[in-house]
Amino acid sequence: MTGTESDSIDLAVVGGDGIGPEVCHSAIAVLERALDGVAALFVRHLAGGAGTFLETGLALPDDTLAACRQADAILHGAAGLPDVLFADGTEAGQDFSMKIRARLDLYANVRPIYLYPGVKTPLADQKPGAIDFVIVRENTEGLYAARGGGNLLGNEVATDTMVLTRTGTARITEMAAKICLQRNGAPADGKRRVTIVDKANVLRSYAFFRQVADEVLAKYPEIEVEHIIVDAMTVHMLNRPGHFDVVVCENLLGDILSDLGAAMVGGLGVAPSGEMSTTHGYFQGSHGSAPDIAGKGIANPTATILSAAMMLDWLAQKKPNPNLAAAAGRIRAAVEDVLAAGTCLTPDLGGDASSDQFTDAIIGRL
After folding, report:
1. Per the residue annotation, which of 114, 116, 144, 220 is the catalytic one?
2. Is 191 marked active-site?
3. Which residues of 79-107 are buried (b: 16+ CB within 10 A; e: fewer)?
């Protein structure tokens, strides 16, 4: 690739566990083809979960954390193996994601939910583009802030504590508002809308989340604001998915709703995600490590490839190089073309193509 030093980007690549290295390999191949006028350095690092924990005793070695901190962005495959556990029964591999979020203050987890042509949805009568919303999940607080700090009293009582702060809630809501203003509104009616999801009718912590979010969104009169209790939200997402534009919620609720959203648009294999702060960005598919298919060459790399496109969009806001955003758009267009054609799909999407064949088809479109 060509490019000046100021155009260059340094990317930390953390393959992780299971299919993680495989989908990262596909995403890098697509990135190398799509980037034009940008010198990109891909540096692979040891980390990402259970395998590293078994080898080193750490899911996130200090030198890998330092490299991720210095990189322009981080591309990750997947972390965790269900049978590699800490003494408390939690997955050792998940420590990588949890720690890097905390250490780099990756407070915003952004998960687009979009129905591509050629991808089957379990929802009847939903056409491509009719489901198009973004879940903005607070990523450093909530119930997950208790990881490693909960209490286990003998073998009788276990407690974890919900943590919500004004600063954390305000900044994730600001992120949701900014994303909303960049979009074209909900598919059903074109309205720019932020839906606050919580359990404010029962828990004081969620009532506080709603109060702070309302205060922030009051500064954006052009955005319609609504509140939906989380259990009702699972019903509304299925019954009227086109109503939603941007959804903002606490960490645990966002984790659950984003997986439901992915199922609505074809599964976790086509669901990208980006985790970001004001200075760092970390991008990975929404799926797990899928150890049952690791090494078989049939993993669907779509989510990681689309996450790589998100990464380029994020980098384009920080580096004065129009080629970054252009490459992101080309990647999404190529993915859409291949999915719409339906002739080269991985098994989870109803086809019989290998990961490499699917990747080559996208590169061919580029």
Report:
1. 144
2. no
3. bbbeebeeeeeebbbbbbbbbbbeebebb
